[in-house]
Design brief:
The protein is α+β, with helices and mostly antiparallel strands and 337 residues long. The protein has helices spanning 13-24, 32-39, 43-55, 79-83, 104-111, 163-179, 227-234, 254-273, 278-287, and strands at 6-8, 59-63, 67-72, 94-101, 121-127, 145-151, 184-186, 190-193, 196-208, 211-221, 294-299, 302-311, 317-321, 324-328, 332-335. It folds into three domains: 13-72, Arc Repressor Mutant, subunit A (Orthogonal Bundle), CATH 1.10.10; 79-286, BirA Bifunctional Protein, domain 2 (2-Layer Sandwich), CATH 3.30.930.10; 294-335, SH3 type barrels. It binds biotin.
Length: 337
Amino acid sequence: MQNKRLRHTSLDETEEKVVRLLKSHQSEYISGERLSVSLGLTRAAVWKTVKRLRALGYKISSRPRSGYKLVQKTHLMLPWEISDGLRTEMIGSKIYYHDTIDSTQSHALKLALKPHENGSIVIAQRQTQGRGRNRRRWSSPEGGIWLSILLRPSFDITYVSLFPMLVSLAVSVAIEKRLSMAPRVKWPNDVTLSGKKVAGILVDASIESNKIEYLVVGIGINFKINPRRIIREIRGINNYGAASLLDRKSKVDPVNFLQYFLFELEQMYNSLVSGNAEWIKKEWEKRSSTIGRVVSISTPAGRISGKALGIDNDGALLVSKKGRTYRLLVGDVDHES
Ligand code: BTN
């Protein structure tokens, strides 16, 4: 069956159709004749498509009198691979795939101008001008998961500052459940492993007359990258280092991980939309590496050092200093003890 989730990509629609047919005959060869009749393509077009699919990383065996057989799917996060088995209802309703893009965030912000777009994902294999928080650069080589999601939530604007924390929670749960690792969250919304950053969240919000028009959430996950490359690029930007979740040899399927993350995110998002926010604070604090520590925070108003007590209902960090409690909504945290 043709995939209902639309996509915009430089990829050809016939590639998806051929993959679907090959997948439905996974254990046997399907003749070139049958492929061409079923898809309304010439035999030459089938052959060209198979060649393009091989270049995309699919292992397809071909035999003169038997036809074609899919031996192994690609490791690339192609749109039809993401939507095949995706259990979400709204997130990923459209998937825009790019091999290389300046920034998925910039593309998603353009999509936000179209009122019917909601839940759309923009994903790229690599970004040339990835954006981080506070106008920083975000290194985005091949092997990472770089995506932006456009959402039009009906929740109250007081939840806007809590929302990125919810996303970092969804990333953490996906890492726990799918990779059996124990990540931590670092205020406001970094995800760390052994003290090093493995994922970051960036939210661009548009608010009109006290109502959220849209949120574009950018998620960068160092899934399987060369950490040395990132560390070189972030020198002087992120002072506590970055790491890759998996090493070069790992065979974990990024598509499977991404699908699980999107499902988890949608569940959490729906819960927030129905006004259920208390659990976010609890779950976030449970995984936090910040709470209970002496921290030093650079804020737009200067540096504050004190003990991190917890987070407020809107995600603000509560820091105690000389008997006073400060509420901080933005800033970068250094853990001092
Ligand atoms: C941070 O500074 O911690 C946030 C990093 C967010 C990076 C992601 S990668 C996908 C999306 N596109 C961008 O240009 N940035 C975000």
